[in-house]
C-alpha cells in the first residue's frame, strides 16, 4: 500500500487518533494509539493497564483455594477453564489423582464454556463488522449455556466451580438433560450462523485477506488458540498436552493455513462443532463416583516449580507456580493468551484501513481483563 | 462471465442472510427472548444453587448453628466475613465456650465464590437466592447475619 | 490434513537435551529437581548466545516462547523462559538471574521471539529489569511516573496493598 | 397540466376570502407558509414514528420486543425521546468552529424537509409540482451531505472528521447511481415532472412497463439510495464500531436530534422517490380504488413503508462495507451496470417493447 505522491500539495500527513479506552470496538478498557494516514493505519500501539488488578501479586498472599476464584476474573468468558488450570497445577503438585467423574465433568463444562465464549465472540464479531443482529442470536444461544451453569455451579459467569481436588458440588440432576437439549438446539442454530454471516458476500470481502499472520510470525508472537490455528500453527493444548478427560475423546484440531481474519473466524466456527462433538462423546458416560477428593484445609505445595497449560477459548493459558513449601505461592505467573495475541495486533493491522483494524481485532477475540491481569 | 457470476452469487448470499432474519421477523411474536424483568417477578425463580447472598438460617427458637469457629472468615479471599466473638459460659454445661456476638457479612465486598459455605463445618451459613441487592447507601450492604438475641443450637460443636 | 504431517516427532529427552546443550556452553547448570521440565540456569552474559542457539539449532528448534516470567528470588532478580519446540514438541526452561537489584540488566530476546517484546515490557514494568537492545522498553501497564516495581518482594504500598 | 396544484390553490382561495382586495401576494405567501407548516407538522411526527418503526422492526428481527413502556405498545416512546432531547443541554467542543458547527444540523434537516414538497401523495395533495421534479429531488438530496461535512469538520474531532470525509466520498459516488437509475426510468416517461410520471403510470407501473431493465434500475436505485442515506450496510459515516458515532460525535440535544430525524426523513424520501418512479405513486394496483382518490395517500404511504421496511431489513442483516469496497461497488459494479442498463432501456423504449396495459 505504498502511496507515492508526486505533487507536494497532496502530500498526506500522519496523525494520531486515540481509540479507546472507551470505544465500542475495543471491548473493554483497552486504549489503542493509532497513527493514521488518511484511512490507512501506520502504527498501532496498545496502552494497557486500565483495569490491571495485579492478580499475580494478590495470589502471593492468598491460599491456593482462594487463588482459584481470582482466575474467574481474568478471562471471564472462559472462567471454568481458568479455574481448572489452577486446580490442575495444585493437583499435579500434590500428586492428587482426581476421580474420573471429576475429569469428565470438568471437560464437559470446559467445552460448554468454550462454546459460550465463541457464541459471544460470534455475536460481537458480527457487531464489529456492522451486522448488529448477530449479537442477539449469539446471546440467545449463550443464555442456554449460562442457564446450565447457573443451575449446576450457582453462577453464570464467574463460576468458581472447581476446587483443588475436584468440584465444589456434584452436577445438578438436570444437568445431563439440559446439556443434551442444548446440543440438539445448537446443532440446528449453528448452520444459521453460517447462513447469516459466514456466507455473506460483504462479510467475506471484509474478512478475506485482512490481517494476515504467517505461521512463522504466529509462532514467534506466541499466538495461541484460534489465532495461532488460523495461521496453521498447531497449538491446541488439548491435543498436545491433553488434560482432564480430553485424552479419551476424539476431535479434530481446527486448522487453517490462510492466516487471515476469515481463517480465524472459520477456526472458531469449526471449534464450536468440535466442542459439541466432545460433549456428546462424554455426556452419556459420566462415570459414577465422588465429585472431589478430600484435601487438607491448608494446602501447602512442595518446594519446586510447577507449570500447567490449558486451552481456554482464547488460547493457551499457562500457570507457572514457584513454591517454597508454604501455603502461599512464592510467585505465580499467568501466561494469558490474550496478552500474546494482542502483541501481534500492530503486526497484522499496519497497512490496513480502520475497518480492517476493527475486523482483525474482533478475530483476535480480546478480553481485556485477560490482558490486564 | 465471472463478473456477472460474482454479482449473482453475491446477491444470492445476501438473500440467504435476509431469509434468516426474515424468518425470525415472522416468528417474532412468540420467539422473543426478552425477559421483562420487573414485570415477571412472580414467575422469575432462581435456581436453587444460585449464589445471591450469604445468609444464616435460624430456626423457630431463634437458634442458628454457628459456633464461631471462624473457618469462613479464614476461607474468604476478600475479608468479606468478620466474626466478633467472645468466650461465654455455656448455661447448660457450665463450661466456657466460644460464642459469636456478631457474624458480619460485607455484601459489597463479596465475590460470590462460595468458599465460606464450603468451609463451614456446621452448615451455619447458606446461599440465598435473592438477587435484588441494590441499595441506596453502601453501608446497607454490611449485614449482621445472626439475628439479635439468637444463640447457637444446643449440641453443635465444631 | 497435510499440516499434521509436517510435525516431526524427533522428540528429545531431557537427558539428550542436556548433553547437547552442555556441549555448546559448558558453564550451564542443569536441574530437574522440583520441576517437570529440564531447567537450565545461565549467566546473564551468555543468555543471548544460548537462546539464539536454542532457537536456531535444528535439533532443538525451540521456536515457541510460551511463557516469560520475571521472578524475584529474594536476593536476586531473574527471568524464567519457558520454551517449546513446535516441531519436536519438547519443552525446556531457561533461568537467568542477576544479583544487581539497583540496576538489573539482561539481554533482550525480543529479536528472537517477537512475543518477548510485550512480555519483557511487562517484566520491566513489574520487576524493573532492564533489557538491553529492547526496541521499545517502557512501562506497559503502569503509568510512566509510577514509583517502584510492584511485583518485587520488597515493594511496599501501605495504602493500596491489603496484606492478610 | 396543473391538476395537482389544487391543495395550494384551495388554501390560497381560502386565504383570499379573508383578505381585502389587492392582497393576492399576501395570500400567495400565506398559502405557502400554511403548507410549509402543515408539512413540517406532519413530517416531524412521521419522522418520529419512523424512528419508532425502525426500533420495533429491529427488535423483531433480533428476537426482542422493542419499546413497549411509554404509551400503549410503546407508541409514545419517540415522542418522549424527542422531549428529552429538546430539554437537554447543548454541549460542544471548545475549539469547534461555532458558526459552522451550529449551522450544520439545519443544513441537513432543511434539505431533507425541502425534498418532501414535490411528492404527489395523491392527485391533489402535492405542494409544489415543478416540471423538473426529479432533478430537484436529486439536487436537494445532495445538499444534505454538505451539512454532514460541515458538522464533521467543524466539531474539531478526528473521529467526526473521518466520518465526514467518508460521507463526502460516499455521497459523491452514489449520487451518480441514483441519478442514472432514475434517468433510466425517465426514458420511459419522457418527463421529469412527478405528476406526469404518475400520469404515465396509469398504463401500468413503470417497474412493470420497463420490466427487466426497470427491475435492475430499481435494485441499483435501492442500493445507491441506501448508501445516500448513510444507512447500514453503508453506514461508514457513523460506523459505530469504528468511529464511535462518526460525524455527529460531538452533537448533543436537539442538534443531534436534527441529524437523527433527517436520517429517517431521508430514508422516507428515498423510498418515496422509488414509489413515485417505480411503483406508481398513489395509483392503486389494477386501479381498484380509482373511484376514491383520497385513498391514494394510503397507497402512497403503504408502498413507501414497504420500501422503508426493505431498507430496515438490509440494515439489520448485513455487515458494513469497508470504504474501499464501498467505492469498488459503485465504480466497478453499479456504474457500469447502470450505463449498460440505460442503453438497454433506450433500446426497449425505441423498439416499443415496454409492457402497456
Plain-language structure description:
The complex is a heterotetramer of chains A (373), B (158), C (164) and D (357). Chain B is an alpha+beta fold and 158 residues long. Chain B contains four helices and seven strands, in the order H-H-E-E-H-E-E-H-E-E-E. Chain B has two domains: 32 residues; 100 residues, Alpha-Beta Plaits. In chain B, strand 3 and strand 4 form a beta hairpin. By secondary structure, chain C is of the alpha/beta class. In chain C, strand 6, helix 4 and strand 7 form a beta-alpha-beta unit. By secondary structure, chain D is mainly alpha-helical. Chain D has one domain. In chain D, helix 3 packs across helix 12, helix 4 packs antiparallel against helix 6 and helix 7 packs parallel to helix 14. Chains in contact: A-B, A-C, A-D, B-D. Chains A and C meet through helix 8, strand 6, strand 7, strand 8 and helix 12 of A and strand 3 and helix 4 of C.
Question: Which keywords apply here?
Answer:
heterotetramer; B: 158 residues; alpha+beta; Alpha-Beta Plaits; 2 domains; 3-stranded antiparallel sheet; two-stranded antiparallel sheet; 25% helix; D: 357 residues; mainly alpha
